[in-house]
UniProtKB/TrEMBL annotation:
Name of the protein described by the UniProt record: ENKUR protein
Intracellular or extracellular location(s): Cell projection, Cilium; Cytoplasm, Cytoskeleton
InterPro entries: Enkurin_dom, Enkurin_domain-protein
A Gene Ontology term for the protein's cellular component: acrosomal vesicle
Residue intervals of the Enkurin domain: 136-228
Basic and acidic residues compositional bias, start-end: 40-61
Pfam families registered for this protein in UniProt: Enkurin
A GO molecular-function annotation: calmodulin binding
Record carries keyword Cytoplasm: yes
PROSITE patterns: ENKURIN
Keywords: Cell projection, Cytoplasm, Cytoskeleton
Lineage of producing organism: Eukaryota, Metazoa, Chordata, Craniata, Vertebrata
Major localisation: other
Length: 230
């Protein structure tokens, strides 16, 4: 059979030769040379403002105004500050000297008021009064202490032992005596001869249970108040 030939072979060949070696030019072959008259001038790239519109002559002219009859111009009166200051000094009260305190023989002195020697703080209205923040802090501490004590008491009540009532005590005694009778009946029914190890262990177990029950019954009957832990 004949070799297969695509019908698009001529088209592909034409497209390959069409764009072949386009990189050799490195840009357009001919470039327009700038004119020497179009050189860059100073401030040519700065933005230019639009030209201001000339105002009309009617807007420029202001209406003439005539002062009224009641108009009185303000007359500036010159003041003599030297005489004014002299009168203020003569008529004013004399300045009181500030008290000083001298503590060395050389005459070193300092102001008496900020030194702490003048008892001016004890004359205050709130002298000796407890500050509000101290009172508020003491109240908060007291409240926290009460909450802590209440929480501790609640925990102790939860962990405290429970006291049995008379009815519960009677019911427990009846149950213990019933168990003692049952175990005693089983103990009385043991064979006389205990020749095996199992018989000896069973007998010792029943005796221990009887002793424990007798001890519990005696303890409950002996004491009026019985407490049990939760």
């Amino acid at each position: 059979p004949l070799r297969y030939i695509s019908k698009f072979r001529a088209f592909v060949k034409h497209e390959a030769e069409k764009n072949k070696s386009q990189w050799k030019t490195m840009g357009p072959a001919k470039v327009a040379v700038p004119s020497p008259n179009d050189f860059l001038q100073k401030h040519s790239k700065e933005p230019k403002l639009a030209p201001q519109k000339k105002e009309q002559d009617d807007k420029k002219s202001l209406p003439l105004s005539v002062p009224r009859r009641t108009y009185r111009p303000v007359i500036q009166i010159k003041k003599n500050f030297i005489n004014k200051n002299a009168v203020a000094v003569i008529t004013g009260a004399p300045k009181k000297p500030r008290p000083f305190c001298v503590d060395t023989r050389q005459g070193d002195k300092y102001l008496l008021e900020p030194s702490g020697l003048v008892p001016k703080y004890i004359k205050k209205k709130n002298y000796g009064v407890i500050p509000k923040y101290v009172t508020r802090r003491n109240e908060e501490m007291k409240r926290e202490e009460e909450e802590y004590q209440a929480r501790v008491l609640e925990e102790l009540k939860k962990k405290a032992m429970k006291c049995l009532s008379d009815e519960e005590k009677t019911n427990i005694l009846k149950a213990l005596k019933k168990n003692w009778e049952e175990i005693n009946r089983a103990y009385q029914g043991l064979p006389v001869l205990t020749d095996t190890r199992y018989k000896k262990m069973h007998k010792e177990e029943l005796e221990l249970k009887l002793k424990q029950l007798e001890h519990d019954i005696e303890a409950i009957e002996k004491h009026k108040g019985v407490y049990i832990a939760n």
